Amino acid sequence: MKTKLILTLALISVFYLAKAQKADTLNASKEDKIYTAVEREPQFPGGMSNFYTLLAKSIHNLGPNEREARTKILIRFVVEKDGSLSNIKVSSASMGTNMVEEDVNSPFYKDIATILRLSPNWRPGILNGRPVRCQYAAPVRINLATNDN
Predict the structure, then answer these.
(1) Do 39 and 20 belong to one domain?
(2) Is residue 138 part of a domain?
(3) Which of 12, 34, 56, 91 has the most CB atoms in a 10 Å sphere around its CB?
(4) Domain that holds residue 13
(5) Coil, strand, or helix at residue 73?
(6) Amino acid 133: pLDDT
(7) Are residues 18 and 77 in the same domain?
């Protein structure tokens, strides 16, 4: 009888711990979720005009080649809860069409990603009154080509 009671208590403990672990896993995956629709969109300090100004100055200083100096790109990233950026992806032709492999691996696009990593923190997206991880995309038209004939 005593053995059955101990065995029953042990099984209850195991099931309780398994249930608690599952709940923790669900909470952790909820914390890691990346949202695409939020109550308040992430914002660059000073607004998007400041974001594009920072990009324009930085890109100009990179000294892009002739093709890079006149192109469209799409920058995608995740604004984390603390405002930092992660999962930064830069693709050519604004919607990813006509993207060539050398574009993805070009030093120019890698430098743009580095600029974003070093940029000031954003205000994170807000959902249900709390900061959340949020996917963001910014189309950028680069036109640094000059007509020196």
Answers:
(1) no
(2) yes
(3) 91
(4) 1-32
(5) strand
(6) 96
(7) no
